[in-house]
Amino acid sequence: MKSLSGLKNSNTAAGRFRLDNCADDKLHESCGVFGVYLNDPERDAASLVYYGLLALQHRGQESAGIAVMKDQAIDVRKGMGLVAEVFNPEILGQLKGSAAVGHVRYSTAGSSSIENAQPFVSRFKLGSIAVAHNGTLINADVVRELLEDSGIGFTASSDSEVIVNLIAKNYRKGLEKALTDTIKFIKGSYALAVLTGEALVGARDPNGIRPLCLGKLPGSAQGGSGGGWILASESCAIDAVGGEFIRNVEPGEMVIINRDEAFSFIFSEKTRRAVCSFEYVYLARPDSVIDQVDVYGSRLRAGEILARESAVAADLVIGVPESGIPAAIGYGKATGTPFGVGIVKSRYVARTFIAPDQDKREKAVSVKHNVIKSEVRDKRVVLIDDSIVRGTTSKRLVTILKAAGAREVHIRVCSPPVRCPCYFGIDTPHRRDLISNGASIGELCASLGADSLAFISVEGLLESLEATAERSYCLGCFTGEYPIPVSGEQR
Ligand code: SF4
Q1: Which pLDDT score, from 0 to 100, does residue 363 have?
Q2: 283 lines ligand 1 (CB under 6 A)
Q3: Of 91, 420, 426, 481, which is least surrounded by CB within 10 A?
Q4: What is the pLDDT of residue 335?
Q5: Structure letter (DSSP) for residue 279
Q6: Which residues are designated catalytic?
Q7: Which atom belonging to ligand 1 lies closest to the Cα atom of 473?
Q8: H helices within 295-440, ranges in order?
Q9: Closest residue (by CA) to atom 4 of ligand 1?
Q10: Domain boundaries, the chain
Q11: Which of 27, 474, 486 has most ligand 1 atoms within 8 Å of its beta carbon, as the pocket-test mutant?
Q12: Torsions phi, psi of 275, nearest 5?
């Protein structure tokens, strides 16, 4: 067991589609988690969690929730919509308690409904717990069946409810044992923020597929009992509440913070680290640092590597906003091609639900992006995108760039072709809807209407992520090789 402060070392550095999300045919994050434990029991943690969740809003816009702990009891509020839609000062004012966990959700397992909104809370004879989970359990069905056979009822279809029920079932063994027994039983990806009547707990799956980091809140200038601890999916959320980033929670590590102490331990055998490479490509905010790698820096490097691997003569390089822009800057610097803002993304596209047919998806893309005609007219343009999933966005962007007068459009992509589904917490279309599945680069280029097309190589992506033998990544959606065997892998 280790003191947390002594570890300040490892990081210095179903049919419904949202217009602002699926319409741009990207892969989508499943969730974001945020937890706070304040040393002063008279202070309220809910408003800090609110701000932390706002900073993690990009990880899920479907529902939001906050659970607080006061006098060993847990109170929870959650609802459908954005964080600012679900919470207001009045609701936050009702959430009294000096420790809290929060969650923003994008559904990957279980339907999009209030029943599946998190944190999940269980109240039982020995106490109460609230669980906020980012990831997907690949053995949730089996565990659920076992729990149902032992008489435990479920209220939701989300795999995350399995975790809360397992912890509740094991609770008579004591908190630590209940948590470790639960975690040894579940398989898949998880970054957890758990609140009990006495502690805030964080845990990360043995491969570290989904990110989780630890921060500290400063005490008051006068000393005393101020300050506290933070758990967050991304470091940008620690920054957002004025906290100090301490380090990442390590794969297979559990962190426990209570009134008397803060400590951590490794609960699993050492396993190959397999952090989701797509976090860096697209999912995470550029101002976050995950496992010692700066997300913005990795995107810049991807552009430089694309320049080395597949440069083309051009007059202008532009990035598809937002995540294609750092790579476009990197590509421009490396090739000497002028960088410009050729495409504008609407910031105010409503969180509207639309039917998932191709026609409506394409229309949604036109609402979302527009071209600065004077910037691209008569130019040979390199268009840098972070990824191509269904191809809807790329096809539409080539069309509107050419309609605006671009002479040539060359697409360069910062990730290898997405050919396989994700089973670890990222929403991917069915394999048959992945445009790169089964198609050659030439066929893809022709179907997108581009003058040339190139993807970064797998080796290039790993280089951009500063991969080493110790710092390894999941590349499953590109290569079909997953960190955990997935039975019946056939989507
Ligand atoms: S399969 Fe792809 S999206 Fe899923 S965890 Fe692995 S790299 Fe990330």
Answers
A1: 61
A2: no
A3: 481
A4: 98
A5: I
A6: 31
A7: 7
A8: 295-310, 324-335, 358-368, 373-376, 392-403
A9: 422
A10: 2-271, 294-466
A11: 474
A12: -65, 140
Fill in the amino acid letter for 333.
Answer: K
Instruction: Indicate if ligand 1 lies below 6 Å from the C-beta of 186.
Output: no
Report CA-CA distances (Å) from 60 to 65, 81, 85, 425: 11, 9, 13, 12
Closest CA to 408 of 377, 436, 381, 371: 381
Residue 483 CB–ligand 1 contact under 6 Å = no
Neighbouring CB atoms inside 10 A of 485's CB total 8
Q: By three-state DSSP, how is residue 16 classified?
A: coil
Q: What pTM did the predictor assign?
A: 0.90
Pocket test for ligand 1, best of 189, 422, 427 (most atoms within 8 A of CB): 422
Integer Rg of the chain from CA: 23
- Token pair 């069915």 is found at 430
- Say yes or no: CB of residue 277 within 6 Å of ligand 1: yes
Find the length of the chain. 491
| pLDDT (mean) for 423-436 | 83
Spatial neighbors of 141 by CB under 8 A, at least 6 apart, are none
Give dist(CA 152, CA 303) in Å, integer. 51
Is 284 near ligand 1, meaning CB less than 6 Å away?
no
The CATH classification number of 2-271 equals 3.60.20.10
211 alpha carbon – ligand 1 mean position (Å): 12
In short, whether 426's Cβ falls inside 6 Å of ligand 1 is yes
Summarised one tens digit per residue, pLDDT across range 56-76 is 999 998 899 999 998 888 999
CATH number of the domain at 294-466, out of 3.30.43.10, 3.30.390.60, 3.30.450.40, 3.40.50.2020? 3.40.50.2020
In terms of phi and psi (left: phi > 0; alpha: psi -120 to 50; beta: otherwise), the region of 51 is alpha
Whose structure tokens read 């080395």?
308
Q: Which residues pair with 120 in a beta bridge?
A: 131
End-to-end CA distance of the chain: 41
Q: What residue owns the CA closest to ligand 1's atom 8? A: 276
